[in-house]
Amino acid sequence: MKTKNLQRIGLTKKQIDFVMAENGKDVNHVKEQMVLREKQMNEMQKENDHLYKELTKLNQIVERYNGIDVKELLETQKRYDKELLELKKSNAIERLFGNLPFASKLAKKQAIQEFEKQNFIFKDDVFIGVDSFFENLIKNDANAFYKR
Asked: Radius of gyration over alpha carbons of the chain, in Å?
């Protein structure tokens, strides 16, 4: 706003000073708002750039797995988990029976088969509650072991 324009319409000096002061306040307020908006816009642009980079990374990851059958992966995982559990059980059985003085391989094999029929709980790579089984095995089938 220009003072000449206000003088042309017949405003007094006091009126012109008032109008110019009010206009200055409005202009300063708008400038402050512009600075604030520009700062917000810069922050949003930084966030947008960051999100774009993250999206690009995620898209690259997705492309690596493109064409993979998730259902097949899950089934394979189940199969391997089951096989691993069976292997752990087999190793635990070998630890339990490995050092016992069986009279023959057949006696050991039959004892293991009887053990497996019991369906003991298998937790943390050990069978739970097997003491009574071995006590009964030694007591009821003493011929299965070497005599000392």
From this structure: 43
